[in-house]
Amino acid sequence: MNKMNSKLKLNKTTKNNLITYLLVIAAYLIVQILLAGGHMSSLMEGLLVPLCIYVMLAVSLNLTVGILGELSLGHAGFMCVGAFSGAFFSKCMQGAMPDGIRFLLALIIGAVAAGIFGVLIGIPVLRLKGDYLAIVTLAFGEIIKNLVNVLYIGRDRNGFHFSMKDSISLHLEEEGEVIINGAQGITGTPHDASFTVGIILILISLAIILNLIHSRDGRAIMSIRDNRIAAESVGIHITKYKLMAFSISAAIAGVAGVLYAHNLSTLTALPKNFGYNMSIMILVYVVLGGIGNIRGSIISAVVLTLLPELLRGLSDYRMLIYAIVLIAMMLLNWSPKAILWKERIKEKYFSGLKSKKEVK
Question: Measured at the alpha carbon of residue 280, what is the angle toward residues 279 and 286, in degrees to the nearest 5?
Answer without folding.
Answer: 95
